[in-house]
Amino acid sequence: MNDRFVIPGRLKNMSRAFISIGVLTLIMGIIFFLTKNNNIDKTRFWAVLLQDSVFFTMITAVSIFIQAAANLAHGSWIVAYRRVPEAIGANVWVFGTIASVILLIIVFVFRVGPEHVNPIYEWVTPGNDKILNGKSAFLNQGMYLGFTLVTVALWSYFGRKFRSMSIAQQSAPKNDTKIFWKVFRLSGLFLLVYALTQMSTAPWLWIMSIQAHWYSTLFSWYTFASSFVSGMSLILLWVVYLKNQGNLELVTKEHMHDLGKFMFAFSIFWTYLWFSQYMLIWYANIPDETVYFKLRQQGPYSIIFYSNFIINFFMPILILMARPSKRNYFTVTFMAMIIIFGHWLDFYQMIMPGPLGSDWQIGFYEIGIFIGFAGVLIYCVSKTLAKTNLIPENNLFLKETMIHIS
Amino acid sequence: MAIKKFAVATYLDEEVLFPAVKKVRRSGYKLHDVYTPFAVHGLDVAIGHKETDLHIAGFIYGLCGTSTAVGFISWIYTSDWPQNYGGKPHFALPAWIPITFELTVLFAAVGMVLTFCYLNQIMPGVKKHVFHPRQSDDTFVVALELNGKNSEEEAIAFLKSTGATETSIQIAESSWWYGRWDKKEAYETMTHI
Hints:
Shape of chain A: globular
Oligomer: heterodimer
Distance between the termini of chain B: 26 Å
Structural class of chain A: mainly alpha
Helix content of chain A: over 70%
Strand content of chain B: 15-25%
Largest sheet of chain B: 5 strands, antiparallel
Number of strands of chain B: 7
Helix content of chain B: 40-55%
CATH topology of the largest domain in chain B: Alpha-Beta Plaits
CATH architecture of the largest domain in chain B: 2-Layer Sandwich
Radius of gyration of chain A: 21 Å
Number of domains of chain A: 1
């Protein structure tokens, strides 16, 4: 079986147009925001770049995680379209590199005002702040540099490794299990890596330390849930696209149903974590902790706060609950786009209140940068997809995935 | 709740069972049910079962649970016995969410279990006719419902042609009943042909 993906001209043009929009927005951002002598504009310039690069790195890294989880569980359900998460995972290094450049510039270079403070990461320039000085054993530039580089390097390595091993399986002798068990062991290792990065340190350093006085012990889980559900939606969008192009003939409604269930279930999981974080803080009512929600729920971000909850909880639960809607290509595609947008908004309200305060706005810059990153994603992933056979021939679970019933 | 006449066939392997069920559905005989010792994937599709509506019932039960919880708690805390707990408002919705969630799950779960039992006619103390003593052991049993026009001999011959190992004609209660096994006077044991 040979199933080659030829990048259609339209997709190529679209990704190039998206990237040009992104680059143009970046240039306009430099002109309008960075060269002005206005601290809020400068902060907005960097904060938006931070939000989008971290968001895209995290949702693409989910593809590595789901491969590792499926490998460990001997999951056959993913095999029919496993080239898609492989291709997304193999491109984590692109977003990881962009993100680490932006993050390190923010931490090491970006300062505003006469006192040269860092408006995004307060802990970089703590001054006489007792709390921030107390946290300086973990929150310091060296730690940040080390954790960021190690995280991005490990994600990039595993993303590319899983793909190359899966391709190596194609030319391996029939029913050879050598590569399979090697991937199995690497998957276990990756889950450990992922637990120590995405599920703990990476969101602490990249996002939670923006409001360094405040902390929440389940923040990383919450960020993981947010990126996981949008990562699955991203995989689903690619699968639907390839299916529309006439590729991926092994993918049936049963496989789509599985992806729909992931979107549905992990939207509920996200809500569970969102509420767990919210309710404890609301109930305890300690000023140290409520400062986070004071800004978001009752402050200038209340519209984002509530629409975030409606988009990411009520829409998935009501639209995706019924079985037929998870098996309908239109509904799942629509919901996947909605979920990605909703969690982009979620990242926005995690990041922006700290540095921007009440001066936030979603204008051309926010949307343009998002489109630019989406363009990079489309460009890189389609290029990777076109390189090999889309059917993972010789995979040990190929027969099982063909007769898969969800 | 009716006494009916059945033509019953047993099979020893699901690889024989599947083509037999397909032949039965094409033949025009009315398929009463198929009994298997374990869950056979795809058999529900082969029998021609419609997708179950159990989950819609579950959704409705869940909504009942949600409204019961929210209605009852809000009635207690806002009008029946309002009290000050830690300076929280009387209508303290976030604090009620865990209880509401639990009650939603409880109502949906219990309601769905009972509905499932009703749809499958199983319940403690309730009896159903057993077509073959080995139908839950190692044998696959297919029961056809015969009407007045069907000839018994033809039905048996047809079942034999599909690869059945044993066949019989049985006159039995078609649905469930509550009470003793021998309470039904019309309950007849197998008349082997």
